[in-house]
Amino acid sequence: MMAIDRLLARHAQKANTSDTPRISKSMVAREAGHSRTTLYKYPKVLERLKSFEATAKSSKQNEIMSLRQEIAKLKQETGTARDLMAAMLLQMREMERQTASRIRQAVRMTQAEGSDT
């Protein structure tokens, strides 16, 4: 149990915990200075390790569910942004058409005024 506590507190004396965020049977056995099979003589230790595994599994499932919700939200926002961009493109094309029409009209008026004189 003290080996588990040291691993949780990140004060391991024998096991390398820097690269692994979870606690395994091998790590506990190494930290306790025993073989992994010796752990099976201590059911309380095994039960405590199982509770850590269950907690880690449920937190991973919660994270996955949260990420899926975020992906769905981002897909919806992307669709909305595409719709807005399409509407703006249509407005821009209509403005270009109106501008070209006004330019042609102004040119005709200028030419008509020039031919009157």
From TrEMBL:
User: What is the superkingdom listed in this entry's lineage?
Assistant: Bacteria
Q: Where is the composition biased (Polar residues)?
A: 14-23
**Region Disordered, annotated ranges:** 11-30
Designated name of the protein: Transposase
Q: Which organism is it from?
A: Thalassospira indica
